[in-house]
Structures are given as C-alpha cells and as structure tokens.
Amino acid sequence: MSTITGYKKDTVGAYIDKDPGARLIYSMDWSEWLPVGDTLSSASYAISTITGDAAPIVRQSQGVSGTTISYVELSGGTAGEIYTITATITTANGNTDKRRFRLKVNNRYL
User: Could you tell me the pTM of the whole model?
Assistant: First the structure.
C-alpha cells in the first residue's frame, strides 16, 4: 500500500495512535496491490477483542471510497490497550486480500 498517511511504523508493522475520545476515519489505499483494471468492490473491517475491556473499539462505518480506497470509522477504546484491525477486501474481479494494522489507544496531548 503506497499511501499510509497518519500511520506510524515499528518492527511489527503499521499502527495508529488514537485517543479514547476520538471518532476518526482510517483509510487504506490498495492501488499498489490491485492488478491493472481491477477495482475494490467491498471492504470489511474486524476488530480484535480484549477480555474484560471496559470500553472496546466500536466500528461506526466501513466501506469503499472511489476505486482503490477502503475505510473504517472507529470510536472508543481503552487507554493503554492495543487493538488489531483487520481489513478484508474483495475486488471486482473476485480477488480477496487482508491487511492488518494496530490501533494503540492512549490519552493524547499537544
């Protein structure tokens, strides 16, 4: 994926810092992976669960924007927890793929 604006990277992979009070849209650009002429037809996002989590991440919306971008709108989360978000896409030609990123929930300050 060529565009990962807002994502950070460490030795494990891509992640995003999120405040527990934030409700934000996170997008993924699949254009680098898609074969020439193919487009996204659907996208879904799964969120890992954490046993005993008092305020889990909530998926507000998800889908496809344009022909190569998938998105998910997330809210909530417990400060100090790290959630795994799994994106699953299907293309117009019937190809499927998955990518994961981590959502690190922390109280964010200026």
Answer: 0.90
